[in-house]
Design goal:
416 residues; six-stranded mixed β-sheet; Rossmann fold; single chain; tryptophan biosynthesis; globular; binds pyridoxal-5'-phosphate; Trp_synth_b_CS; alpha/beta; four-stranded parallel β-sheet; amino-acid biosynthesis; aromatic amino acid biosynthesis; 16 helices
């Protein structure tokens, strides 16, 4: 593959067309174009408006509970040092968790939802729509819609509605309408198609609250900017707590919002190694994984050009992961660009490895991580024993695992 020339900064994208190199853009129906341009204009004003920033900051503090802590995971560090010693290496890097699991609604998703609901308000929109897979983004959207008094429709694949009943009920309690989508395999990709269709039909009054750093420009940029609070905080906290930058930072990649949120403020710190973790599912040989950057090809889906899981005819595949939040056949376009430019490494972690990391973290830290986050932890478990003791790794703990206990019980052959 041809590597694009190394830019001076990795933090300047996208360009005015919404491109990150050859990725991104806005491949949408003509009827959507005025909406997207309107959104872009409001976003460009909002991001430079002190009043907008102040309102978001107050909500982040008093409603969502920010800043989230940067926590030294002493139990996990000790465990990995024991492994390192047993291998005769005598190392074991220090592990820190960025605690997005402590946020209101239990994950990083609230950061983006608070930002976008303020944008909707600014645009004078009266109705919120969202797509959801596992239901985490649906719950976060329904939450901010309730807080701001907007009606909210959440599109969710019919298969997912069956699989994620507690979240469906939560959304209903919060006042949202959940619309099951029966097309395709009834999963996230189909829900996103349906939400885009709704948006085209209800252009006047509707705001589409996208849940990850994907979709047509300017969504990948604005979601990244709302999530960058993670990396901005983590960078400052690390400087304060350790007096230096970390050696490695790791995050799980579904659509890529928690990962780009952690990564972006570190992209120009050349000494920091950055690793994104894709869902390796049951292995990259077959089709039961969601590793679009390790096993996919560039194509166009949901309004942008990016790495996608597709068959020889360009049909989008569904993919598989133990974790519903990583179960998206594409990835945000900025990640595709960071992959090709070589700044960020992307590695797969298998279902079994994530499950083991889930159980380990629960036992040695007393923290039940989301299965998505467990993928990132699993990679730290792999590399930390081979690193020296004075090295530092930050893992993004993107969410809490309460939502996953049924899946885990199933995998362990137990019944709750
Ligand atoms: C949704 C979700 C993810 C994956 O989404 P990204 O946009 O890739 O961050 C990861 N972790 C948790 C806890 C989630 O809820």
């Amino acid at each position: 593959m041809n590597k694009p020339a190394m830019p001076n900064s990795f933090r300047t994208g996208p360009d005015e067309q919404g491109m990150f190199g050859i990725f991104g853009g806005r491949f949408v129906a003509e009827t959507l174009m005025p909406l997207i341009l309107d959104l872009e204009q409001h976003w460009n004003h909002a991001k430079n408006d002190p009043a907008f920033k102040a309102e978001l900051s107050a909500l982040s503090t008093f409603y969502a509970g920010r800043p989230s802590k940067l926590y030294f995971a002493e139990g996990l560090t000790r465990h990995l040092r024991d492994i390192s010693a047993a291998k005769g290496l005598g190392g074991g890097a220090k592990i820190y968790f960025k605690r997005e699991d402590l946020n209101h609604t239990g994950s990083h998703k609230i950061n983006n939802c608070l930002g976008q609901i303020l944008l909707a308000k600014r645009m004078g929109k009266k109705r919120i729509i969202a797509e959801t897979g596992a239901g985490q983004h649906g719950v976060a959207s329904a939450t901010v819609a309730a807080r701001f008094g907007y009606p909210c429709v959440v599109y969710m694949g019919a298969t997912d509605v069956e699989r994620q009943k507690p979240n469906v009920f939560r959304m209903k309690l919060l006042g949202a309408e959940v619309r099951p989508v029966h097309s395709g395999h009834g999963t996230l990709k189909d829900a996103m198609n349906e939400a885009l269709r709704d948006w085209v039909t209800n252009v006047e009054d509707t705001y589409y609250l996208i849940g990850t750093a994907a979709g047509p420009h300017p969504y990948p940029e604005l979601v990244r900017d709302f999530q960058s609070v993670i990396g901005t905080e983590a960078r400052a906290q690390m400087l304060e707590q350790e007096g230096r930058l970390p050696d490695v930072i790791i995050a799980a990649v579904g659509g890529g919002s928690n990962a780009i949120g952690l990564f972006h403020p570190f992209l120009d710190d050349k000494e920091v190694r950055i690793i994104g973790i894709e869902a390796g599912g049951r292995g990259l040989d077959g089709v039961e994984h969601c590793a679009s950057m390790n096993a996919g090809r560039p194509g166009v889906l949901h309004g942008n050009r990016t790495y996608l899981l597709q068959n020889e005819d360009g049909q989008i595949l569904d993919g598989h992961s133990i974790s519903a939040g990583l179960d998206y056949p594409g990835v945000g376009p900025e990640h595709s660009w960071l992959r090709d430019s070589g700044r960020v490494e992307y590695e797969p972690i298998l279902d079994d490895e994530a499950l083991a990391a889930f159980q380990l973290t629960t036992k040695v830290e007393g923290i039940i991580p989301a299965l998505e986050s467990a993928h990132a932890i699993a990679h730290a478990v792999k590399i930390a024993p081979n690193m020296a003791k004075d090295k530092i790794v930050i893992v993004n703990l993107s969410g809490r695992g309460d939502k996953d206990v049924h899946t885990v019980a199933n995998m362990m052959g137990m019944e709750i």
